[in-house]
Amino acid sequence: MQFDTKIAVVIRTDLEVWQKLNVASFLAGGIAASFPECIGENYEDGSGTQYLSLIGQPILIYGADRAQLSRALERALARDVKPALYTEDMFKTTHDAANREVVRAVARTELNLVGLAFRAERKVVDKILDGLKFHT
User: Fold this and answer.
1) What pLDDT score was predicted for residue 2?
2) Domain extents for the chain?
3) Considering the domain 5-36+53-134, what is its CATH architecture?
């Protein structure tokens, strides 16, 4: 199935594996919270057991270095695409309010980005991520 929109998560490649998984999870949650229309129906197995719904379209995961993340952020904002973000400082906090505080304390050009997520029209996301490769 071809979707009109694309969901992309960009993760800094020099992170520890647990950090990459953590960042990807938080960023996917940001997309789900901001775009409830992308959530599918609940699941049910053959025994009738109910399960939670998931995002109903693929999420493409890209790798980037710090400069590429900053460039993707600027490209997104120039195209009026509001991203979800995760910064390195957020690894040191223990709750959502503290995460917002550490982001608010830093100017955009100085953010130590470790991850971004976008959901927009396919072509727009492609332009934002131009030159990035899938994460390996």
Assistant:
1) 85
2) 5-36+53-134
3) 3-Layer(aba) Sandwich (3.40)
Give the C-alpha separation, 64 to 84, whole Å: 16
Q: Which residue in 10, 4, 17, 3 sits closest to 75, CA to CA?
A: 10
pLDDT in tens, 16-45: 999 999 999 999 999 999 999 999 999 999
Contact of 87 with 12, CB cutoff 8 Å = no
Given pLDDT bands bounded at 50, 70 and 90, which one contains residue 1?
confident
